[in-house]
Amino acid sequence: MEIIYDIKNITKKYPSRNIIANKDINLEIYKGEIIALLGPNGAGKSTLIKQMMGLIKPTSGNIHLFGEDIQVNSKFITENVSYYAQDPHAITSLRVWESVYFSSRLKGLNKTSAILEADMLIRQIGLEKYKNDYIKSLSGGQKRLISVALTLTGNPKVLIFDEPTNELDPVKRKKVWEIITNKNKEGATIILVTHNVLEAEQVVDRVAIINEGKIVALDGIKQLKHRIDQRMRLDLSTSDNLITNKLFTSFSEKRPQRLTDHKLRLLIQKDEIVNVINKLTNLNEKFDFDFSLVPPTLEDVYLRLEGGVQTSESIGI
């Protein structure tokens, strides 16, 4: 498979703040794939993206894009990669249509092609009736849709989206994911940074889970699920915080996650299910609670990370 981004031994340090944002990251991104970077806040995802865009330089290591060293040829990034900015601050004084049109022109399209692209993209994001409005007058969700359109101008080979569906209602979120997947079908390579694990799971080919500046898991969705396929997810729900505490103590050896004051989640081995069901039955005679057993999802891996897991071994993958 053709390698689009070849990231080798990237480390980024901020000595003045005593922070190591990225630690010896190695990652290959392939042509035509959709890859998601997942991880808790402060994990180092945005720092990695900024280095991939040439916005900051790594302390050590190197990044190649289509074989070009981006520290030597930073112009190569703007020619091939488009980055989704969550809020189009720089163009809020423009009208919706002209912002897309000028973006297309800046990316090399002639006047006729830019007009056609602006009309098409505004139609795709569903903002035709706002095309003559100033961007600064739009809602936060509408501004995000404009950012999506601006990212798509010029038909770039690589698209990087940082939380593209934040602040969007379900209908607009679905529209954005459709646009992203359609661009991928047309041949674009997509890199997603998102916290919305459930939505991302429906569209991505591979996932890189980042925690404390390191990649702790990297694989396809099916492969990740297969690696934890010998476990089941147990959800426990109560109506009383005291009962939640009792259950937490009873299953402490399973390292339960406290999702809320009234809900716990843990992963158990399939060969332990009978024993766990018996234990739950006995506890249910003392305490009032509900439980469910379901196969684990990608979200379970992510939640394990948010719970403080720092290595691939400690999350069982």
Automatic annotation (TrEMBL):
SUPFAM superfamilies, per database record: P-loop containing nucleoside triphosphate hydrolases
InterPro entries, per the entry: AAA+_ATPase (IPR003593), ABC_transporter-like_ATP-bd (IPR003439), ABC_transporter-like_CS (IPR017871), ABC_transporter_ATP-binding (IPR050763), P-loop_NTPase (IPR027417)
Alphabetized SMART domains for the sequence: AAA
Source organism, top-level taxon: Bacteria
Keywords tagged on the record: ATP-binding, Nucleotide-binding, Transport
Start and end residues of each ABC transporter domain: 5-237
CDD domains recorded: ABC_subfamily_A (cd03263)
PANTHER family cross-referenced by the UniProt entry: ABC TRANSPORTER ATP-BINDING PROTEIN, ABC TRANSPORTER ATP-BINDING PROTEIN NATA
Protein name: ABC transporter ATP-binding protein
Taxonomic source organism: Cytobacillus horneckiae
